[in-house]
Amino acid sequence: MELLLAIALAVIIMALSIPILGSIFSDDALQESFNKFEAFVQKAQTKAVKERRTYLLIWHEPDAKHEGAITLEPEILTAEEAGTDAESFTFGDAELTLERPFTLEKKPLAEWPFWKSGTCEPVRVAYKSRAGTWLAEFDPLTTRGTIIDMDNR
Which residues of the chain have pLDDT under 50? Predict the structure, then answer.
């Protein structure tokens, strides 16, 4: 009888801990998605400074060519770059949206410029997937992101 009671208690404890473990794994997946995106942002800044020209992160609508990816492209293409494919960041079934809170445009373009000085426009990027959501603000001087809201499901 005592053995059955001990097994029952162990099963109850394990059943209660499963949602907690799932939450931990969701947090890790969300943090990893942010880290990958931030690394892509840092690549844009590095290219702009190194090549001394403006680069853009461009959010594309889903189509056959871009599949909803974000591409890293120079603002002005050289003749050699004219037919080449841009570097891209894909995010699978997740959704990444760009918010430009300081723009004067009513309907801002889905472009984020990185100037040759190493600075960028201040933006917010929102991420949404089955694992959860995060919202990050990116500093215009350092281009580093800070997660201001994260919610796992």
Answer: none
